[in-house]
Amino acid sequence: MIDFYNDDSLSIHTDLYQINMTETYWRDNFHNRKAVFEVYFRKLPFGNGYAIFAGLEKVIQFLKEFHFTETDLSYLREQGYEEDFLKYLKNMRFTGTVKAMKEGEMVFPNEPLLRIEAPIAEAQLIETPILNIVNYQTLIATKASRIRQIIGDDVALEFGTRRAQEMEAAIWGTRAAYIGGFDATSNVRAGKLFGIPIAGTHAHSMVQAYQDEYTAFKKYAESHKNCTFLVDTYDVLRSGVPNAIKVAKEMGDKINFQSIRIDSGDLAYLSKQARKMLDAAGYTNTKISASSDLDEYTIMNLKTQGAKIDIWGIGTKLITAYDQPALGAVYKIVAIENENGEMKDTIKISANPEKVTTPGLKRVYRIINKGNNKSEGDYIALDYENPQEEEPLKMFHPVHTYISKFVTNFEARELHHTIFENGKLVYEMPHLEEIRSFARENLELLWDEYKRTLHPEQYPVDLSQACWDNKMQKIEEVKTKVAKMKIN
Ligand SMILES: Nc1ncnc2c1ncn2[C@@H]1O[C@H](COP(=O)(O)OP(=O)(O)OP(=O)(O)O)[C@@H](O)[C@H]1O
Ligand SMILES: O=P(O)(O)OC[C@H]1O[C@H](OP(=O)(O)OP(=O)(O)O)[C@H](O)[C@@H]1O
Ligand SMILES: O=C(O)c1cccnc1
């Protein structure tokens, strides 16, 4: 048997090219040059009008613990890295400064979700894990929030663990879904780790095991106070619902007949009929829950059909972000220290205007109209600017610059918070409940036009004049340099 190393570190959870670039920087004595990187995505997922940022807690855990262990170094030694470089890696810790959006913040394309200022070697090595974390968790929180927009005040249960892309995804995906507005999860470990309420019914296997639906319901009721009976193993209306009612009547006050669950068939028709039967039997407070490949589209459709469903159990299509399995957030360098210790802005040019990076250290502000407490848009400014002092504030589209407006009577709310300061964690992570409430209440800032699930209005994310001018100047500089290049 091949003897593999113990999985005792996440620091090596990075792409090989990051280590190779780090080696180049180190051998060139360039590794301590301060660099600034930003994390952002270019396109909203699922055609939604906003995204919900999640992943910060795990990023913090990762950066706090960042160091190469003996097993990491042994493995790298085996790959041919030399001792002097390994010694450098051994002593490396994260010493940078990180600014980030709060978890649960609504976020939009092209705005920095995180800003990392660190020696280039450190900043480079943490790119892959940060993207790995933020891309997935933000995607799932957004999907969950989108589902919440459709279900209104109904209950949403996260049922996805069995279909998730492995165990970590189930756990952190569940947490992200809770931030996005789900009410509970079936994953007991997620409850233990994060305090997320846990909820669950029973499976078809229990009914099949007893080989008799009535007996199965009765045995369950004899061992549980709170009962939800799964009524679709044989025939929902002829067998499942009548058996559930029969057991509930027999058990009387000994149980809370909380709900029935329907997991197959025509959920609209069956739920309407089941509602009538429960009501007729006097169980008007007993809820109906449904599951079976649900997503926001099916739920919307079921609601238009008048389905009598109060509780939605959602697995696969949430936890795997089935219709768009990747967010596409990137990590781009925007400034680097030169040999004189001065920070110089950097730019990446592309034939595709959306892929041209925006140089310089930036901050993101939400421009909130004080008259109606609605957001006018987000405003990306250079680090030294203070948009609050500009009255009126000109906001213009960063690509179609003729689209502009002047805003008065506004609050420019800065969205970044300092998380690490020179390697020291200075941010106190809010409790998960607080993050979830913040995500819900914060959405009140958005007009409904941005929140609808189909063809929402495009929320403005504008650049300040100085930020835009700086970008244009850098584009000119690069073009001039390229034009003067002589290739021998
Ligand atoms: N009234 C309805 N309108 C729209 N979609 C529905 C309705 N009822 C159920 N669905 C959805 O239809 C899809 C497929 O249901 P289908 O009947 O094929 O499978 P099922 O009943 O779940 O059976 P099984 O689980 O045994 O495959 C599911 O995604 C389900 O959520
Ligand atoms: O459909 P999803 O949104 O992914 O929700 C999770 C599904 O997992 C269970 O089915 P499964 O067939 O795995 O087990 P069961 O025998 O208990 O129905 C449950 O009944 C749901 O249908
Ligand atoms: O508790 C349930 O009903 C449940 C849990 C996981 C997956 N499907 C259903």
Task: Note the topology.
Layout: H1 16-27, E1 34-40, E2 51-52, H2 56-64, H3 70-78, H4 83-90, E3 97-100, E4 106-107, E5 114-119, H5 120-125, H6 127-151, E6 155-158, H7 167-180, E7 184-185, H8 188-194, H9 204-210, H10 213-223, E8 226-230, H11 236-251, E9 256-262, H12 267-280, E10 287-290, H13 296-304, E11 311-314, H14 316-319, E12 330-337, E13 343-345, E14 362-369, E15 374-382, E16 393-396, E17 404-407, E18 410-414, E19 417-421, E20 424-425, H15 432-442, H16 448-451, E21 461-463, H17 465-484
Parallel strand pairs: 6-7, 6-11, 8-9, 9-10, 10-11, 15-21
Antiparallel strand pairs: 1-5, 1-12, 2-4, 3-5, 3-19, 12-13, 14-15, 14-18, 16-17, 19-20
What does this molecule look like?
This protein is α/β, with parallel strands linked by helices. Helices cover 38% and strands 20% of the residues. The chain starts with 15 loop residues before the first helix and ends with a helix. The site of nicotinic acid (NIO) has 8 residues, from loops.
